[in-house]
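Example 9 (inverse folding). The structure is encoded as follows.
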């Protein structure tokens, strides 16, 4: 089951409405040069190095957001379920990063010295601010796009014919893996549980942050393709 199929099975739910709302954003994500050239193995190595360094910086902050969201969960069952799904995603991504950092000659010193690009800085600060200052339901909606969009992209790329010798195949395998899909499905389910208990105004906030985080997903990949740095 791919992420698109999943959204149709959620008809009438908050997450189905949210996925429909970001259809224009997803259309732009699906044609991003970074993703199309990663898929066919022609992505320039310097672009991928820039991307993976920024992603390592992003994940450090994202992990903290996940912990904050879990701490705000309304009951122990949701705390444990959310922490479990979050742990899966973090473990998978950390393993992926470790392999690529070695493969592309990126040292631990490079990671330590790296600075977030403007897009990475804006995205992580948006997530942290939302996690700290918003309700559980709203904070959860802000971190959902990262799970769901990566699942969708991974499934879409995995469905294409494999390119022999593609240096980025491990990335494709990671986000097209059933383990990652299971983590994404769990966060989608938790978001719908939270939405059912939310007030109308809170649901509106949930939708707003879901859309904004999805826009930041596009910005993050696009900025990596452009090797974005601070202009001054």
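The amino acid assigned to each position is listed next.
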């Amino acid at each position: 089951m791919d992420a698109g199929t999943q959204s149709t099975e959620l008809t009438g739910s908050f997450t189905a409405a949210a996925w429909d709302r970001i259809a224009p954003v997803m259309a732009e994500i699906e044609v991003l040069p970074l993703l199309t050239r990663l898929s066919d193995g022609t992505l320039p190595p310097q672009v991928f190095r820039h991307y993976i360094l920024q992603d390592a910086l992003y994940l450090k902050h994202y992990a903290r957001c996940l912990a904050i969201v879990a701490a705000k969960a309304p009951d122990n069952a949701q705390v444990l379920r959310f922490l479990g799904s979050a742990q899966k995603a973090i473990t998978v991504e950390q393993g992926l990063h470790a392999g690529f950092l070695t493969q592309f000659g990126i040292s631990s010193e490079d990671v330590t010295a790296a600075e977030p690009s403007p897009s990475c800085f804006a995205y992580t600060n948006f997530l942290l601010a939302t996690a700290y200052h918003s309700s559980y339901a709203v904070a959860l909606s802000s971190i959902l796009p990262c799970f769901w969009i990566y699942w969708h992209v991974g499934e879409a790329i995995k469905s294409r014919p494999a390119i022999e010798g593609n240096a980025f195949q491990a990335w494709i395998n990671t986000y097209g893996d059933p383990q990652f899909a299971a983590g994404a499905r769990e966060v989608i389910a938790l978001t719908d549980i939270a939405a059912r208990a939310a007030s109308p105004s809170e649901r509106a906030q949930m939708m707003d942050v879901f859309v904004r985080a999805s826009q930041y997903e596009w910005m993050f990949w696009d900025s990596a393709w452009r090797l974005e740095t601070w202009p001054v």
